[in-house]
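Today's session is about reading a structure prediction critically. Students often jump straight to the picture, but the first step is always the sequence itself: look for stretches that repeat, for charged clusters, for runs of hydrophobic residues. Only then move on to the predicted structure, which in these notes is written as discrete structure tokens rather than atom positions. Here is the chain we will use throughout the hour.
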Amino acid sequence: MKNLYYLLLLLLTYAPLSATDYYVSKSGDDANDGSLDSPFLTLSKAASAMFPGDVCYIMTGTYRETLTTVRSGTASEPITFRNYQEDEVWIRATEEVNGWSTHLGNVWRTSVSLSQDSRDAVYYNDELLDLARWPNNEDKDKFTIDAESVLGGSAGQVIGKSMPQVDLTGAYIWYLGAHSGTSWTRRINNRQGDAVNFQAININAWPFHPHNPTVVRNENRGRFFVFGALDLLDHEREWFYQDGTLYLQAPANADPNSATVEYAARERTIHIKHDYITVEGLNGFGGKVHLQGDHTVIRNCIIRHGLESLDELDNTDAQVGNGSIHIQSSNNLIDNNLIEYGSLNGIFMQGWNGVHGNEIRQNEIRYFNTVGIHASPIRAIGLGSKILYNTVYGAGRDGIFLPNQDCELAYNDFSDVMRINNDGGLFYVVGNADNKNTSVHHNWFHDSTGPEYADGRTAGIYLDNNSKGYDVYRNVVWNITWSAVQMNWSAWNNDIFNNSFWNVEKAMGVWLNGHTQMNNRIFNNYSRESNWEGQELSNNIVDTADPFTDLNNQNFLPKAGSALVDAGIEIDVITDGFTGSAPDVGAYELGGEQWIPGATRAGVPTSVFAPKVPELDIKIIPNPTNSLSHFLIKLRNGGHLDWSLVSIDGRLVARDDRTSLSAGEHQFELPTTGLPAGIYVLHGRTSEGFFTDRIVVE
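Below is the predicted structure for this chain, in token form.
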């Protein structure tokens, strides 16, 4: 009896008898009980009160604190933080700074304590400003770098021309070598005339070889700018901080007292330290989302300026293990978010300590890596990663880095990368002795050219040094300046099947550099350009005639009677379900599905000449429901329908991904009978567009 008493006491102390809904409001009070009529004021108070199954509804407003979890949910009862109804909620890692007075000319100053060091950042009406620099960022585009040519130098010195004759001690130099594969940043020891001196680098080791001022390529020695000195603050949109004083020259030389000026005060907006947590409909600004608990769901959020930082000042591997969403745990879902603006990675997924099984799907990810190192909008190093239906564009270097085993990259749209760097690609990996068993299929890679100061080596699918065991099929690569597929050094056991290449420099490129390639099969591919290279070639077509149904609108189905039709060979799984006497060559099959990649929230990002595919209207009847429900969809022309029903915490309830429909209205049964009460999300797509809607089960 005594043991039973203590067991009951333990249960009452550490777990509620039933799930509870809590509410947070900017007009609340942490002394309240957290109910709808008596909400809490802070996120931290709500987190401290929550147990498995509890939901926290956050009302409209700006919350200047880090949402940090206190305990775990369970697989059947996750802990959920979400916006109340359709309220707009922002969690900001920034604080406002006021009290500006004139310093000198158009420069203003105020007292404040900045403490984020290399992550210090200043925002003016939500616009990220430049740390005072030379040359100035005249075009307001961080991807064009606005740098000066290097005239000479050594391991510890860069020589320029007509440099500002000011004290640069303690400031920084950003350097991009003539090869332009990556940059590096170092603190300046002193300036001597038109030269700056810094602690010497090892010019015989990667990444400083070949990226240093002693190396001449493309008839230059690289380019650089200097930044981080008060005497460089001479242009609008610049700032500098020293010894408790923040100096600012505002956009259009305005009075900053009439604007909202903020500085980076915290590293994170959301910190998931426990398992089975769901975050939905919450927006973050100025700090990263950090996942250290397993089975987390981040859905329907905006993450803006999640990581604005300098490169590491002692970086010797051209990488930084950090991102706007930083994943250090397993079996998480990043779903249907807008992730935008950052100096390094958009999503960084750790590849060590057993991290595995993460899925990134249906996100729009854009404008990352303004530093110009080996960083990407998606840098997913974890084992068994799935990257599905994302739209990615705007990057200083590669679109995605996916180097681990048992991964899948499918139905994504990548474009507009390599704005700063050279010798990279929309998809980029490096390998080792292991077969990766990774598939890259049904993606678009397009419209990327690289910077004018380099030699234009932007590949579509880049299997760099020693990449092994990749299955690359049903992809379209177009409008790029180098190889559609590039394989370097000991690339082995790669299958390149049924891809379409248009307006590329060459279909394939191989650089052995003294190594040997073997067991690479290149079958059923189409290109307008020649230069097929590989160990085993079969049924590849080179033809300059446009073979597509509607190239301008990205309808890559073969035209009837084109050279692609019935010209391929059968390949298990890859060509299953072909029409006609033989499979077609290229990414699409005449009479087959006109699949469209990319995120639902982004529509379909295409070239500037093509329209976006619209979002389709559907009806869910009944909604809300406590029994069986259906959804209705009407198609103009018919086609394939893919749809999935997921719970709010990311668990798949039902899926149908191969339904072929005729034109007209169709009804589908949703298996909602018997589901636990809650909110579920229906995602779907056809060749005519996308749809997403919520269904409430009561």
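Discussion point for the tutorial: The domain at 2-88 is CATH 3.30.1910 (so0334 like fold).
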